[in-house]
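@channel sequence for tomorrow's demo:
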Amino acid sequence: RELNGAEMFDTASSLIRLGLGRGFILSENRFLRAPTRIARERFMTKLRAVSRRHIIQGLTVAASFAFAGPAVAARLITTPHQTTGPFYPEILPLDSDNDLVQVQGRTERAQGEVAHIFGRILDQEGRPLRRARVEIWQCDTLGHYHHPRDGGGADPNFQGFGHTFAGEDGAYRFRTIKPVPYPGRAPHIHFAVSGKGFDRMTTQMYVAGNPLNQRDWILNSVRNTLARKKLIVSLGPAPQIEPGALVGTFDIVI
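structure tokens (generated this afternoon):
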């Protein structure tokens, strides 16, 4: 059917915003500034000269933008890879569950501020990577790793390494301590994720607000600002989980 004046104007205006109306010799301001009824009618007469084919083509392209937009926006930024580092355990400890604060067979818990780390393992479409194996390792509250290269002195009540498996929704959790700095590095926790259908990836999680983040060469090797922010996690009080503990969320996108 023939479009009326208001429909024609709305259509042309939309096409111009999409960059598809260059052949119309039309602008919204020109229409609104038309001083008389006769001038506006002449303007609309010229607009009706645009063929039905052009309008249909334009609307088809516009519709494709509308449907493609959410799909593109839904893709998640992948979590940047980070180095494994020299302190991945040579031999995994007998107790390597997801609670690094309490070592089986010991009565005392680890020194340091308890932190609960939650997150999900996802692909770029936001789908959970079910049953992915998630590992973490980090230094103790004094900056020592449970590793021969570190020279000893690590807290015996701190597990230092732990692992778990993501659930059906991709979710995982760890109970550990708030990471601390040591010479040359900002506070961080190492992560490794492996599973069916993708290569093992390693990355690191950093603490938001720590001034050493600005100087950490491994963190700042990620040049993309948005990607780098994905590695930085805010830790806040979590009295509902454990008195005096902290909590943070670190989603990993593969």
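heads up for whoever presents: The longest helix spans residues 52-74.
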